[in-house]
Amino acid sequence: MQSALVTGVSSGIGKAIAERLLEMGFRVYGLSRNVTQTTLEHPHFTPLPCDLRDSEAIEQTVAALDKSALTLLVNAAGFGRFEPHEELSTETITAMMRINLEAPILLSNLLLRTLKANQGNIVNITSIEALRSSRFSALYSATKSGLRAFGQSLFEEVRKEGVNVLTINPDMTDTAFFDDLRFGVSEKEDEKLLATDIADIVEDILQMRPGSAVTEVTVRAQKFGITKKKTK
After folding, report:
1. What CA–CA distance (Å, rounded) separates 7 from 52?
2. Which terminus of the chain has fewer Cβ atoms in its 10 Å neighbourhood, N or C?
3. What is the arrangement of strands in the sheet containing 45-49, beginning at the earlier edge strand?
4. Which of 99-103, 156-160, 175-179 has the lowest mean pLDDT?
5. Reported pTM
6. pLDDT greater than 90 at residue 64
7. Using CA atoms, how far apart are residues 42 and 111, in angstroms rounded to an integer?
C-alpha cells in the first residue's frame, strides 16, 4: 500500500485531499498541530500531531515515520493575515513564513531521498496570490510565491529521478481559512472554489500516465465574488 504525508489535514484543502487519497487506497499520515481535532476517521489514517512552526518537531516526527512505502508529500497547511504590513506582529510574520514556506521546504528535504527511491510526487498548495500583487498581501504573497518558485526549481532538479513536483494555485476556496478574516468567499456556487475541487485535481494528476508530468495548475471560480464581513 502506498502512503502519503499530508499537512493541514484538520480542515479545508488538506482534509479534502487526505480523504480523497484514502478513497484511492493510500495510507495517509496527517501532520497538523490540531490533527487530534479532525473529524477524519479511517483505518488507514494516522494522525501525527506536530507544530509546523517548530523545525525540530518536524524532524523528530519524520524520523519516527515509516517511510518505506511513501510516494507522496502534500504541503497543504497554511494561513494568511491581510493587513497593512506595519500592523502585522512579529509573531504573525514569523509563523506565516515558517508554516507557509519553511515547513514545506524542510519536509521536502527530509523526504526527498525516499520520494526519489519510490519515484513519488510532491504537491504544494500555494495561492492565486503567488501570481499577482495585491494590497495588504505582501507577506502572504511572499510566502506563497516563494513556495511556487521552490517547487518549480525543485522539479528541474529531481525530474531525472522520476519525481514530479506539482504546484496548485487556488483562488478563493470555501474553507475555514477565512474564518478570522474581514472578508470571505461568495455564497454563489460559480463565484467560489470548493476544497473537493482541489482534491479532484490531485486525483486526476496522480492517475496520469507515468512519464507525463503536470507541474502547475491554477484554479479559479468561473466568476469573481467576495463577501465583506461586518466589523465588530
Report:
1. 9
2. C
3. 45-49, 27-32, 3-7, 70-75, 121-125, 164-170, 216-219
4. 175-179
5. 0.95
6. yes
7. 24
